Each structure stands twice: as structure tokens, then as C-alpha cells.
Amino acid sequence: MQTGKNPKPKSNPKKIPSKSYSFEDFIQLQKPDFELTQPLGEILNFRKSERNFSKITLEQLSSLLWFSAKVKNIKISETDLILTHRTSPSAGAIHPIDILVSLPDSFENRFLYYYDPFNHRLNKLILDKAKLESFFFHVNMNLSLSNATLIWFLADVERTESKYKNPVSLIWRDAGALIMTIQLVATALEMNSCAIGTLGEPYISDIFQKYGNYFSAGGILLG
Prior knowledge:
single chain, alpha+beta, seven-stranded antiparallel sheet, two-stranded antiparallel ribbon, 6 helices, 11 strands
């Protein structure tokens, strides 16, 4: 069964267009003062999806993002592509998936933050509040938000497309790798986590349509 066209590196990669979100505030996260020392086999044995969540602290969230998604090294390619090394693998080291975070609160007071993996901080996004509420209600219908911290994946097609033809399957594989990385780190930090079945569409595409060719790649609840 044919599921799509094979991705293929471009002979002449193009520079990724410069884009940025609109922010109104930020939360600077702190580097953890410890390392993860649990044996990998122990983490693999204990990892499982849990659907009961409690509020986590900013320090706990900071540790999770630091170990699972923080940029470790940066390289500029000959064609001016920004390539980064992170815990989770990514096709061409491009990392097209932006991590969005929503801290526990009522639907009316929940927001989305963009996790800046270069500076390790949460930037509060300026987004349509009514559209955000509709998105959170949609997620809650699939898996109760309650006290959970929400992590959502926003995929920028143009990043991977700058280097590869037929990039979509690569982006989905990036998303799967990132989900697994975050859940393994959550297990190491003794947090409950569960991937969400819905893609959050058409809500996410509607919220972020002004920023370019983005699509939603799912999310995870933590707590």
C-alpha cells in the first residue's frame, strides 16, 4: 500500500524564511541543578501512559524541557540553515516542531507559551482568546485537562521542506521521536504523562494560520 512519496534531500537546500511569533511576556526557566542518573533499562521498564495528573512546579517543567528539548549545540550549514543538536533526533538536524506549553488553569485563563529551546524560557503568545478556549475545550473532550500541563507540537513545514522534497513523513517521524523522548524524561522525573489522540484540528491551524505553513502534530498531558 502506498502511503506517500519518499522524502529526498534537495541538491540545493534553500534558506529558511525568518519568522517569529508575537509575545507579550516570558518566564525564564532555570537550569536544573542535577543530572538524570537512572539506568536506561529502569526508565524503559517503568514508562507507561498515566491519565491522572497533578499540578507540577515550574522547576519540574523546566527540568523536563531542559533534558528533553533544550538546544545543546548549534551549527550553521554552508547554505545558512540553522542546524541544532537536541536530545530527540530530527531529520537533517532541522527540528521543525515548536513546543507549545499551557500551564494548569481554567479554560478561560489558560494560555499558550512558546518554549524557546535556545534560551530555555517560555514566551507567552499573543493569540485569539476565544479560539484558544475552543482548542482547550476540544482537548478536554479527548482527555481531561484538569490539573495537567499541556505540551503541544506545532510543525513548521517550511523548515524541513528547505532541505527535503516530500518532507511530511519526516516531520511525523520527528513528532514521534519527540513524544517518546518527553515521555521517557517524564518517567525519569516521576511525572505522569499521556499522549493525546487528537491533532487539535482545525483549531490549531486556525490559530496559527497567519504565521505560515504550519500544522498540528498532537500533544501530551503531564502532571
